Amino acid sequence: MFPVPRADLRPNTAEFETVPLISPNGFREYDARWLYPKEINLIGVQALGLGLATLIHEMGVKPRIVVGHDYRSYSLSVKQALALGLVSGGAEVLDIGLALSPTAYFAQFALDAPCVAMVTASHNENGWTGVKMGAARPLTFGPDEMTALKNITLEGRARGRSGGSYLAVEGVREKYLDDLTSKTKLTRRIKVVAACGNGTAGAYAPEALRRMGAEVIPLDAELDYTFPRYNPNPEDLKMLHALADAVKQHKAEVGLAFDGDGDRCGVVDDQGREIFADKVGVLIARDISSRQKDTQFVVDVKSTGLFMTDPVLIANGAKTEYWKTGHSYIKRRAHELKAQAGFEKSGHYFFNPPIGRGYDDGIVSAAAVLGVLDRAKGQTMSALYDGLPKTYGSPTMAPHCADEKKYGVVDEMIAAYTQAKARGEKIMGLAIRDLVTVNGVRVTLEDGTWGLVRASSNKPSLVVVVESPVSEERMRGIFADIDGRLSKNANVGAYDQKI
Q1: First vs last Cα of the chain: how many Å apart?
Q2: Which residues pair with 264 in a beta bridge?
Q3: Mean per-residue pLDDT for 259-283?
């Protein structure tokens, strides 16, 4: 139906209006993201929709698919092009309109649709677009499906089919909010600042929290796709600092920050301190494991070591497995193990029944945090946080590295640390206790200090995280070792932030 997509087209040319532009680098490990229209044009998005419909048919899945879009100036146009491609490929398209990613996932259940294609750039800066896809609720695509989609689309193997249809579905937002808030009813009015970064969550989160019984102070909840103050990203320091200031100004008990498509939630305590999402996960895991027996959790390799060493989790008999970073990986692994929850350091949390349906939802995560506070017998968020064993950890750091180079750099780091361990090499005078190479390399020293290097799944960068249960000096020492090795590689550029 289309010419074979190309990656070298320029705007304001006849070819740009007649040939699909699709950069191969936009197909990531578990979703798709491009700079629009530099790396993908509308005809390219249409070709992507046709490729997705073709893949769904080849998978033998009923081609009934929910589509939605986030709040950006171009997302509606991108979604319409995607829907047109899906329909031409024989798919039954159910368009729920402006939505959060978890609203689209919910709609798969509510509308009995096996498939989903949510147009969102998540927390990425303006100029980015993308699609989160799945064909087996509550899961989203992983590397196998994304590779198949890439090959079908870029090789021009997508095929049109008859029988496609389009239906605009109204009322999904209300059904989603009703379902969400029916599961959480607070016993007291917890005062909350809800920061939305002017993203899509502003149309959902404050109302949902009020319905749960919280007293809500909205922060940047007006939808504005220019993102005038900061990017809606719970790991962005500007967003967290603004939230912290509001918490202290309003004397709130907790601050909650939602990302651009509403599938993540960040937390600031009553003193205005940001709590990294993995530490919040430990608090939630403590709460769940105190109320359920034989709890199983899955966490990503960027997360704190406390999931293995926290005395409360040990006493509660909780078990934790470290797994690959990425919302698709943790979601799938938590589903496979029938874990109570999966936690990512980035703030993606996955709660299986009865708390959630297995997909990542920032408002469900917020409800879990409020539940911890509600059951804390008068303890503040800061007291709960201070009750965790002390560790010294870094934010997620991202040195620039081109997409076509980053995996090779990580392979070199894996080889270097594997050889160092085999030789008995020491770091800060400490032996390397173990290496986890399921996703990059996580190096743990004999005192529990650890550092991670992996390739980012959605940006041209590496990911570096370090932590020590002993001291800030040890934390900085393991970072110095990692940074020293990376700095010798000409393919590694500047960090977005650095300890």
Answers
A1: 51
A2: 348
A3: 96
